[in-house]
Amino acid sequence: MIRTPSTHRHTSNANKAGGLPIARPLASLAGLALALALGGCAVGPAYQTPSTPQPAEFKEARGWQPAAPADTLERGPWWQLFGDPQLDELVAAVEVSNQNVAAAVASYAQARAAVGEQRAALFPSVDLGGAANRSGGGGDTRSASQYKLDIGASWEPDVWGKLRAGANGAQAGAAASAADLAAARLSAQGELALDYFSLRQADAQLALLEATVRGYARVLEITQNRFGAGIAARSDVLQAQTQLASARIDLVGLARQRAQLEHAIAVLLGKAPADFSLAVAPWRATVPEVPLALPSTLLQRRPDIAAAERRVAAANEQIGVARAAYFPSLSLSGSYGVAGSAVGGLLNASNSLWSLGLSAGQSLFNAGATAARVGGAEAGRDVAVAHYRQTVLAAFADVENQLAATRALLLQQDLRRLASEAADQVETQMLNRYRAGQVAYTEVVTAQNTALAARRALIQAQADRQTTAIALIQSLGGGWHATP
């Protein structure tokens, strides 16, 4: 901003015009500024979304029979497909209380503020200033007062598109931050669902082990009675005691695991573990049918892909900002003010002061610094492009992995169920034959251990199918419909 000294005054012309002497020069300057702005051009490269591999279908989905999304997702958010009201309540709390989500919300607000700051540079800035001075000195007892009031404006026309490139880059950064927020929400929701179902699986395992402990206690009682009657060896009693103690040890370990999962859920909800608890409840082993989408729609839905693409756009705009240094920078400034020895004199047009200015600057030699900055910006864009393409490839691999796991776990669950049913029958037969004195107790112990392992493996297979369904939903971006 340029202001004239307070001793420079224009008197007669101002009085004759009956108005401000700056009006006509300001009009000319405004016309020049408008011409410069309209004649401006962008020096950055035109942005195009980087190309990525787009297979026609997922390899692991060949032969897949997808469910129709109309009768699943349209009923509500993805976690509601598991039919657990307690999970629905917890996920709703994550939106409000999770600290990672809160940090992502704040980061998005910060990015939006940066957009506003960059856009403000496209418009003139106006300042108002005032001053009052009183001076005197020497043997002279007289003193003098001086008052000044002025208003000034400055503006840098965006002739080469540098400022607009900065604003566009900030806007792309804000869009990337919005995608980061969506990714943080999806991650917190998925982690909560995984921890919650792991906790419910622990409840199921605890119920199984508690029933097993009761069964082992009855077998120990039978064995002790047989030993007392002299028809069983003491080693049988010792084996029964060992087996019962081992089951109780597993019970204590599962209780510890459940407590840790409960603490993890509390942290996800933004609560201290001491202030949160989940009562034991039946486990809903629901595994929803996950309808598949085309790989191309995956690019529109995954928030991490969207964030990576927006960062490419932001890096592309930085090239324009760097290239603008090759061209002159222009700045327009003007001020109008009044000065006088009395406050009342400030209203007199004869005390008015004004100034107009147009400045231009151009670097003639900087030892290649501008070219280096442009090269650095182009390299930064190439880095962002590579990260974007890697994110897309990783997303495709993630979906393929979860599809393969979904298919395999379904087969494993059926086989685990058959194995568990067979092991239960063997356990019953061996216990009956032991009571009849037909087999040694070691065969009973072996059959019981095998049956317990088969039951626990079946529960684990059901839990794995649930967690894989959650992972598949997350890998698909949290839903089955493309972003509008």
Notes on the protein architecture:
By secondary structure, the chain is of the alpha+beta class. It has one domain (44-134, 144-324, 331-475): Outer membrane efflux proteins (OEP), CATH 1.20.1600.10. The protein contains ten helices and four strands, in the order ααααββααααββαα. The protein has helices spanning 12-17, 23-38, 85-97, 99-120, 162-228, 234-268, 295-301, 303-323, 369-435, 441-475, and strands at residues 125-137, 140-155, 329-340, 352-361. It has a four-stranded antiparallel β-sheet with strand order 1-2-3-4, covered by helices on one side. The longest helix has 67 residues, at 162-228. The two termini are 47 Å apart. Residues 1-27 and 65-75 have low confidence and may be disordered. It is found in: Cell membrane. One of its GO terms (molecular function) is efflux transmembrane transporter activity. InterPro entries: MdtP/NodT-like, OMP_efflux. Keywords: Lipoprotein, Membrane, Palmitate, Transmembrane, Transmembrane beta strand.
